[in-house]
Amino acid sequence: MKTKSDIGLIGLAVMGENLILNMANKGFTVTAYNRSTDKVSHFINGRAKGLTIRGADSLEALVDSLAVPRKVMLMVKAGAAVDAVIEQLIPLLDEGDIIIDGGNTYFPDTNRRVAWLREKGIHFIGTGVSGGEEGALTGPSIMPGGAVEAWPEVKPIFQCIAAKVEGDFPCCDWVGEDGAGHFVKMVHNGIEYGDMQLICEAYQLMKQYVGLTADEIHQVFAEWNKGDLDSYLMEISRDIMAFKDTDGTPLVENILDTAGQKGTGKWTCVAALELGVPLTLIGEAVFARCLSAQKDERVAAAKIISGPESTFDGDRQAFIEDLRQAVFAAKIVSYAQGYVLMREAAKEHGWHLNYGGIAMMWRGGCIIRSAFLGNIKEAFDKQPGLANLMLDSYFSEKLQAAQAGWRRVAAAALMNGIAAPTINSALSYFDGYRSERLPANLLQAQRDYFGAHTYERLDKKRGEYFHTNWTGRGGDTASTTYDV
Ligand code: NBP
After folding, report:
1. Per-residue pLDDT for 482 more than 60?
2. Cα separation, 4 vs 62, whole angstroms
3. How close is the Cα of 262 to the center of ligand 1, in Å?
4. Which active-site residues does the annotation give?
5. Closest ligand 1 atom, residue 105 Cα
6. Among candidates 198, 211, 229, which has minimal Cα distance to 372?
7. Quick one: which of 9, 137, 424, 461 could link to 18 by a disulfide (CB 3.0–4.6 Å)?
8. If 0-12 CB within 10 Å is exposed, 13-18 middle and 19+ buried, where does residue 172 land?
9. What is the mean pLDDT of residues 36-49?
10. What spacing in Å lies between the alpha carbon of 141 and ligand 1's midpoint?
11. How confident is the model at residue 262 (pLDDT cuts 50, 70, 90)?
């Protein structure tokens, strides 16, 4: 073992332990520390035995064991715990040392911490780590941002432990300034919500409308996973459909239909609302989880409010192909919206994001990994300033091809009373985005009518505002022009 460790890691819960083992397996020497120090000895005498991992029983011992510039990675519970550990580390570290927060931190906290530590001469990196327990051990997707000066020091470790795709391409690269790494990880999680909900709606339509069994749905997902929808989430959904409970019935059918959430989907939607980005698919996915959680109310409502009887008498294969197209098209919309959100955040915060690079960071190691991300990388390689993924020739052609089937599925869901919020709202966004004229002219008229909020005219140049005395009773005074 080297006399000084390459990196120290604080937080020996599931993610921290596995990241340390991953680093040691790749030849790095790591010092492990945990607030409850009994976990340190348990780890050192257990999973870490025989590896290049040393334990520290205090933060002082951890800092003393590190090669300079010291690199200390935090894998503790996001929020106040991160600040508490940073406060304790500051007096122990020197200028030029590096603190890395690898938790699921809300990006404004990372913005704040980068600035706070910069004042003290300490470089702070906030990095998203995706892939859960297994990813942490065998190769996660890592999305670092913050103090770029620290990146050359951290890069060899992070790129070495990250997942690799297309040969030896690491799913880790520099994302951008301040909290950009955590922002991108947050959008990743939001997209994850959307991808999961889309698959759930496909399952519901196949089960409730077409009448397929879990084994038949397993076969459909297996087929879908061989084409455009090839992804980790499709793969696990395929396997879940085939998994049997102890009594031989499909386990999935015995699971209570109320979904939990930890908040990253909500944060993504809040960021979208603040930046004025229509992130409709992820929003619907978050709300679908909220609605699922209202189980008791739904059970009561089902007895009171009725809908159409669901009937299917069409061609099964044809409908399943339409459904595949609908899921694929809606998925394109979801990623298009997520990328618009990142672009608007970059404008707002002055970040320089590498959009193709982000697709490659998500290409392996993480929950949303899929073949499709390679196409997104190509789209941004062709046009780095691409305004919306749907305008790229590959994706616009795919959407064109999927459109008819997508509409048939949305119509079937609506006519048969089966909720498919992400498939349907994505179609509304698609139709809205491709509409030269939306009904916002009437909306502006309404706003001007009741609040003298003014409007612009088609026959005048942009930026010239008009107010009409609609009722004859109001005056000519307009309200201040403002945009929300
Ligand atoms: P947890 O989020 O469960 O955090 C537990 C760790 O935080 C323990 O080591 C605990 O020490 C430490 N900790 C707490 Br709680 N308060 C502390 C404090 N005030 N000072 C010092 N240490 C404190 O662990 P996790 O599930 O491994 O996740 C770690 C981070 O990675 C989180 O931000 C999480 O959101 C993120 N993440 C998790 C996953 C996943 O799949 N679990 C995936 C991706 C990212 P103790 O032992 O003394 O209580």
Report:
1. no
2. 10
3. 13
4. 185, 192
5. 33
6. 229
7. 137
8. buried
9. 97
10. 18
11. confident
Cβ of 104 below 6 Å from ligand 1: yes
- Is the distance from CB of 37 to CB of 54 less than 8 angstroms? no
Record the tokens describing residue 255, joined without a space: 């699971």
> How wide is the angle at C-alpha 31 spanned by C-alphas 26 and 35, nearest 5°?
130
181's CB contacts (< 8 A; 6+ apart) are: 110, 125, 126, 127, 128, 143, 144, 145, 146, 175
Q: Is 162 in the pocket of ligand 1 (CB under 6 A)?
A: no
Q: Is 256 exposed, middle or buried (0-12, 13-18, 19+ CB in 10 A)?
A: exposed
**Does 447 sit in the ligand 1 pocket, CB within 6 Å?**
no
Rounded-to-integer distance, Cα 378 and Cα 357, Å? 10
Q: Across all residues in the chain, what is the average pLDDT?
A: 96
Q: Distance from the CA of 255 to the center of ligand 1, in angstroms?
A: 27
The continuous run of DSSP H or E covering 130 comes out as: strand 123-130
Residue 6 binned pLDDT confidence (cut-offs 50, 70, 90):
very high
Residue 284 phi/psi, 5-degree rounding, is -65, -35
Per-residue model confidence as pLDDT tens digits over 91-100:
999 999 999 9
Is the C-beta atom of 86 inside 6 A of ligand 1? Answer: no
Q: Taking 90 as the threshold, does the pLDDT of residue 273 lie above it?
A: yes
Q: How far is the CA of 78 from the centre of ligand 1 (A)?
A: 7
